[in-house]
Write a structure and sequence with these properties.
By secondary structure, the chain is mostly helical. The protein has a single domain, classed as YgfB uncharacterised protein family PF03695 (Four Helix Bundle (Hemerythrin (Met), subunit A)). It is 63% helix and 0% strand. It contains 10 helices and no strands. α2 crosses α4. The longest helix is centred in the middle third of the chain and has 23 residues.
């Protein structure tokens, strides 16, 4: 990651404590938030924080404390910049969870994928406006592992333990491919 955009350790701890606290009843936890911010970053356009921040907290205030809410918003924007800097500088994105799944049990990776899909849904039409088949293929691991889309074909893929494991292992490379698809200069 580019050092200029590295999230300070104390800011990361503040975010994790806030997002994973039981009082954060409306927002995503820290793992799902990373997935959410990753989708915003790799996608075709980053919506303004006035759009994504309410979505992240289910249209509820971040905090009743205005100073804390501003601090959390700034930290989230910094985290998104860190994700962008990592990908921009050609580094693979490390997920804040292992790429492991458990049969019939939700894992942090499932939560991360759910957060990714929630972020993608904010501007879903723009994701598919360029090359729908390619984007559907690239986002398949997150679609399958998020368990958000109730489709018989996806459910069948979810039940295949080997295939699900293979999809999980593809996520870091797929994120780079999506980022490059939307953000690399187009050659003529």
């Amino acid at each position: 990651m580019h050092e200029l955009h590295a999230l300070p350790a104390e800011t990361r701890l503040l975010l994790e404590d806030f997002l994973d606290n039981e009082s954060n009843t409306d927002g995503l936890d820290s793992i799902a938030t990373h997935g959410f911010l990753t989708a915003l970053t790799v996608g075709p356009e980053v919506p303004p924080s006035s759009v994504w921040l309410p979505a992240l907290f289910d249209n509820q205030p971040v905090s009743a404390d205005a100073a804390l809410a501003a601090q959390i918003q700034n930290a989230l924007e910094g985290w998104q910049k860190e994700i962008h800097a990592t990908l921009y500088h050609g580094q693979p994105l490390a997920l804040p969870c292992t790429l492991a799944l458990k049969a019939n049990e939700s894992t942090e990776l499932n939560d991360w994928c759910m957060g990714f899909m929630e972020g993608m849904f904010l501007k879903e039409s723009s994701w598919y406006s360029d090359d729908e088949d390619l984007i559907a293929d690239l986002t398949l691991p997150m679609m399958v592992l998020s368990d958000l889309i109730d489709d018989p074909d996806l459910q069948q893929l979810r039940r295949d333990a080997k295939l699900s494991k293979d999809l999980a292992q593809q996520i870091p490379d797929v994120l780079t491919e999506i980022y490059l698809h939307f953000h690399a200069p187009k050659t003529i």
